[in-house]
Design brief:
Layout lengths: L3 H12 L6 H8 L3 H16 L3 E6 L3 E6 L2 H16 L9 H15 L5 H8 L3 H16 L4 E5 L3 E5 L2 H12 L19 H17 L6 H19 L8 H8 L2 H17 L5 H13 L18 H18 L7 H20 L8 H7 L1 H18 L5 H20 L6 E4 L4 H15 L5 E5 L14 E4 L11 E3 L10 H5 L12 E10 L4 H14 L7 H11 L3 E3 L1 E3 L12 E13 L2 E10 L9 H12 L1 H9 L3 H10 L1
Parallel strand pairs: 5-6, 5-7, 7-8, 9-12, 11-13
Antiparallel strand pairs: 1-2, 3-4, 10-11, 12-13
Helix pairs in contact: 1-3, 2-3, 5-7, 5-8, 8-10, 9-10, 9-12, 10-13, 12-13, 13-15, 14-15, 14-17, 15-18, 17-18, 18-19
Length: about 650
C-alpha cells in the first residue's frame, strides 16, 4: 500500500539522472534515513509487480529501473488516482500541511474546530498550533484574522476583496495552463459552471479583440469562478463611491458589463454593480499577450509616467550590472507594454501566479537580479511594492535581452505557442536563436486558444511550451518554457572548458564546512562577520544582503541558497561558501549549502560563465549532497571540479 512518502520517493527516483541516496531522500522528506530504508523495502515489492525494480548500491544510493514501460504506467496511474482522492493523500511535510490547512480554512465558510483538523491530519494539537503560527502570518498579509467562538471553533474574518485574492493565491497557485482549459484542475467548483464561465470569457474577449496570455485567461476564469461562488453565498465586494465611479469610466468596464450579462443569463444569478467593477479590475490587470516584431518601433497608448519609469529602470540596471541593454528598443517596448496591466495588478493587490518563477530564479539568477533592481526603481518612481511573481515576469524580458546581446540580430519559419506571455516567449525565442543562429526565423508568438486563427502556409513548424493535441499540417515541437541547465547549458559549457575557471571565484579561506548554524540570519551574520574581519566588506554589506532577502528569498531548492547584496558593493568578485550540519529553513525551502555571491562594483567583466557555473550547481542535487558531506577544502575542491 503506497503512502505519501513512497509516492514522493518514486517521483524523486524518476526525476533523478543518477543514483539517489537515502540521506538525500531523508532530508527532502524530513524523516530519518531508517524510515526511508523501510519505505524502500516496501516499495521494492510494489514496483516489482509493475514491471520495475529499485537497484540499491552500497555507498552510492538507489536507482529506479523500468523493465516493462506499459506495466509501470499502471502504477503511475494508480498514484495519480490516489492523489485525486479527497484532494490528495494526507500531507506529511510541514509545508504541505500548511497548504492543506489554508485550503480547509478558506473553503470552510463557517466555524472549524482545531481538534477536527488535527484528527484529519493525524497530528497532535501542539503540532497544529505550530503550523497555525505560519498560517496566521500568511493571512496577516491579506489583513485576514481569526474570529474565535467558544464551543464553535474559529473562522476567517476579513475584507471580501482580500479574501478572494487569498483564495486565488492559495487554492490555485499551482495551476498551469495546459492547452484547453481543464475544469477538472479545480475540483471544488462545478465543472459545468466553469465551462460556462470559460466559454463566456472567450466569446467576449474575441468579440472585443483582446489578446490574453493563457495564464491571464486562466487567472480571469479562476477569479470569476471565485466571485460566482461567493455571490451565491451572498458575500459581495464593496467599493468607495469615488473608486467605483473611476472604474466605471474605464473602457474595460463595458467588456466586464457584457461578461456579467452573459453570466447572469447562463448561471441564473444576479451580479451587483460592484461585482462588475471587480471584473473590470481583473481585466485591467490581466496579462495580455502582444506579438512582438523586430521592426515595430512604435509604442501606442503608453503614458509618460510608464515611459519614464522604464527608461530609469534600464539606466539603473546598466549602471549597476553593466549589461549594455539600456538602448535595446525591443526590450524598452516590451517592458512598457508589460507594465501597464502590471501596475493595475499591483495597485489592487492582484497576484498573478508565475508558474516559471522557480525556474527563472534558479536558471537565470543574473536576469532575476536585474529584475530586482528594476523593482526597486519601480518602488522609488511610482511608490509601488512589487512581489516576486512580478519580478519573475520582468526577469523574462530582461533575460531575453541579455540572450539577444550574445547573438545580435539574426534571422528563419516558425511560430512560438507560449502560455506564459510575451516575456517568456521572447526569452525562449532568443535562446533558440542563440542555439540555431540564422537557420531559424521566429515570425511571432501566439497563445494556444488563438492558434487556429493563424495562417500556416508560410510556416515550416510550430514550437510550443504546452501539449497540442489538435492536428496541424506541419510538425509541432514541444519544449520546456525555460531552456537552461540540462537543455542548453551543456552546449554552452563547450565554449569555456577551462577547468580552473570553476574555482576562479572560490578562496580556500572563505569556504566554511559543516557549520552548526540553525537559521538564515545566523548564517548571514556568520559569513558577513568573516568577510568584515578580512576587510572585504564594509558595515553596509549585511544590510544590503538582508534587503535583498526581503524582496525574494534566494533559496533555489535542492538545499541551495545563493544570497547576495541588493546591488554590487565589493571591490572584487568572489564567493563565500558555507555548508551546514543540518538543513535550515530559508524562505519556503530548506537549505544546507550557502554560496554568498559578491560581484565587483562597476565591474565590466563578462560574468556569464560564473552564473553558468552557479546554474549547473543548482541543477545537480547529487553534487550538492557530496559537497555538503565534505570535511576538508581539498575534498570540496575535488568534488566541485567534478560537477
Amino acid at each position: 500500500m503506497l503512502n505519501a512518502r513512497m509516492i514522493v520517493i518514486i517521483q524523486e527516483l524518476m526525476k533523478a539522472e543518477t543514483s539517489v541516496t537515502s540521506e538525500y531522500l531523508a532530508k527532502f522528506l524530513d524523516v530519518t534515513s531508517r524510515t526511508i530504508r523501510n519505505d524502500i523495502k516496501e516499495l521494492e515489492t510494489i514496483v516489482l509487480d509493475f514491471g520495475g525494480s529499485i537497484k540499491s548500491t552500497r555507498g552510492i544510493g538507489y536507482e529506479l529501473i523500468i523493465d516493462d514501460d506499459q506495466l509501470f504506467r499502471q502504477l503511475l496511474q494508480n498514484i495519480t488516482e490516489k492523489g485525486n482522492e479527497n484532494e490528495g493523500v494526507i500531507p506529511t511535510l510541514p509545508e504541505d500541511r500548511v497548504q492543506y490547512i489554508l485550503k480547509r480554512l478558506l473553503l470552510a465558510g463557517e466555524y472549524l474546530k482545531l481538534d477536527d483538523i488535527a484528527d484529519e491530519l493525524y497530528i497532535s494539537k501542539s503540532t497544529l498550533q505550530n503550523d497555525l503560527k505560519e498560517i496566521k502570518e500568511i493571512f496577516h498579509q491579506y489583513g485576514i484574522t481569526f474570529n474565535k467562538r467558544p464551543n464553535f471553533g474559529f473562522k476567517l474574518v476579513g475584507d471580501e476583496f482580500k479574501l478572494r485574492m487569498c483564495m486565488a493565491d492559495h487554492l490555485f497557485n499551482s495551476l498551469e495552463p495546459k492547452g484547453d482549459f481543464d475544469p477538472s484542475n479545480i475540483p471544488i467548483f462545478m465543472e459545468k459552471d466553469l465551462n460556462k464561465i470559460s466559454r463566456i470569457i472567450l466569446n467576449e474577449i474575441n468579440k472585443h479583440q483582446m489578446a490574453l496570455s493563457d495564464i491571464g485567461l486562466n487567472n480571469l476564469i479562476i477569479h470569476l469562478a471565485i466571485a460566482y461562488n461567493r455571490i451565491k453565498e451572498k458575500k459581495y465586494i464593496t467599493f468607495y463611491p469615488m473608486e467605483l465611479a473611476d472604474l466605471k469610466k474605464q473602457k474595460k468596464y463595458k467588456v466586464a458589463d457584457e461578461i456579467v450579462k452573459a453570466l447572469e443569463t447562463e448561471l441564473v444569478i444576479s451580479f451587483p454593480e460592484t461585482e462588475v467593477a471587480y471584473i473590470t479590475i481583473h481585466l485591467l490587470g490581466t496579462k495580455m499577450l502582444t506579438e512582438f516584431h523586430m521592426n515595430d518601433n512604435n509604442i501606442h497608448g503608453i503614458d509618460h509616467q510608464i515611459y519614464q519609469t522604464v527608461k530609469k529602470m534600464l539606466e539603473t540596471i546598466d549602471n549597476e550590472l553593466h549589461l549594455k541593454i539600456e538602448n535595446d528598443q525591443e526590450l524598452f517596448r516590451a517592458l512598457c507594454l508589460h507594465l501597464k496591466p502590471a501596475l493595475h495588478r499591483l495597485q489592487y493587490g492582484i497576484n498573478l501566479t508565475n508558474p516559471l518563477l522557480q525556474d527563472i530564479k534558479s536558471k537565470y539568477p543574473h536576469a532575476f537580479q536585474a529584475a530586482v533592481i528594476a523593482g526597486i526603481v519601480l518602488k522609488q518612481e511610482l511608490e509601488m511594492e512589487i512581489n516576486e511573481n512580478e519580478i519573475g515576469y520582468l526577469a523574462l524580458h530582461l533575460g531575453a535581452a541579455m540572450e539577444n546581446n550574445k547573438i545580435g540580430h539574426q534571422s528563419k519559419k516558425c511560430i512560438i505557442v507560449c502560455a506564459s506571455g510575451v516575456g517568456s516567449a521572447r526569452l525562449l525565442a532568443n535562446k533558440i536563436k542563440a542555439r540555431f543562429g540564422a537557420s531559424v526565423d521566429i515570425v511571432g508568438t501566439t497563445e494556444y486558444y488563438k492558434l487556429n486563427q493563424i495562417s500556416m502556409h508560410s510556416l515550416d513548424f510550430i514550437i510550443s511550451t504546452i501539449p497540442i493535441s489538435k492536428e496541424f499540417p506541419l510538425p509541432v515541437i514541444q519544449v520546456n518554457s525555460i531552456l537552461g541547465g540540462n537543455d542548453l547549458g551543456k552546449i554552452e559549457k563547450l565554449f569555456s572548458k577551462e577547468v580552473n575557471q570553476k574555482l576562479k571565484y572560490i578562496r580556500e579561506e572563505l569556504v566554511f564546512l559543516q557549520k552548526n548554524l540553525v537559521s538564515r540570519e545566523g548564517v548571514l551574520h556568520f559569513l558577513g562577520g568573516e568577510l568584515a574581519d578580512r576587510g572585504l566588506v564594509d558595515e553596509q554589506f549585511l544590510e544590503s544582503v538582508f534587503a535583498r532577502e526581503a524582496i525574494s528569498p534566494t533559496s533555489y531548492g535542492k538545499f541551495v541558497a545563493i544570497p547576495h547584496p541588493i546591488t554590487p558593493i565589493t571591490d572584487s568578485t568572489f564567493w563565500a561558501i558555507c555548508t551546514l550540519q543540518k538543513p535550515i529553513k530559508w524562505g519556503d525551502k530548506r537549505v544546507q549549502f550557502v554560496c554568498l555571491l559578491n560581484v565587483e562594483k562597476n565591474s565590466t567583466d563578462e560574468l556569464q560563465h560564473m552564473y553558468d557555473h552557479l546554474v549547473d550547481l543548482i541543477d545537480n542535487s547529487q553534487i550538492v549532497q557530496q559537497l555538503i558531506k565534505c570535511k576538508t577544502y581539498k575534498e570540496f575542491a575535488t568534488v566541485f571540479l567534478k560537477g
